[in-house]
Specification:
Layout (H helix, E strand, L loop, with lengths): L5 E2 L1 H10 L3 E4 L3 H4 L7 E3 L2 H9 L2 H8 L11 E4 L4 H12 L6 E3 L2 H9 L2
Parallel strand pairs: 1-5, 2-3, 2-4, 4-5
GO molecular function: thiosulfate-thiol sulfurtransferase activity
InterPro entries: Rhodanese-like_dom, Rhodanese-like_dom_sf, TSTD1_mml
Protein name: Thiosulfate sulfurtransferase like domain containing 1
């Protein structure tokens, strides 16, 4: 697990605005209810491994979006403070999602920078 698998707030903002990112919010639903990054999908960290092992049809049925591809360059995980996001990113990388990244600032940093 190395720095190349972490994304900064600036790069994250560009990705979110481009709408090309696959953003997976690994917090609990109760946390997500208090605010989330636009177009993110909530998959709690405990479910990430199971979710990424699903076939695409099952994944889409359960989460309402297409399953990320193994070679997806814009697959981003995040949590509130960075720790669970790092766990999820590591799980994804171990499953073959080599370009998965963690938005280490998490929703805490995002909300502080977005809401002025």
């Amino acid at each position: 697990f190395h720095k190349g698998n972490v994304i900064s707030h600036k790069d994250m903002k560009v990705l979110v605005d481009s709408r090309n990112a696959r953003i997976i919010d690994v917090r609990l639903p109760g946390e997500v209810a208090n605010g989330h990054i636009a177009n993110s999908v909530n998959i709690p960290v405990a479910e990430v491994e199971e979710a990424l092992k699903m076939d695409p049809e099952t994944f889409k049925m359960k989460y309402g979006v297409d399953k990320p591809r193994m070679d997806d360059g814009n697959l981003i995980f995040h949590c509130q403070m960075g720790r669970r996001g790092a766990q999820a990113t590591e799980i994804a990388i171990n499953l073959g999602y080599a370009k998965a990244r963690n938005y280490a600032g998490g929703y805490k940093e995002w909300s502080e920078k977005e809401v002025k």
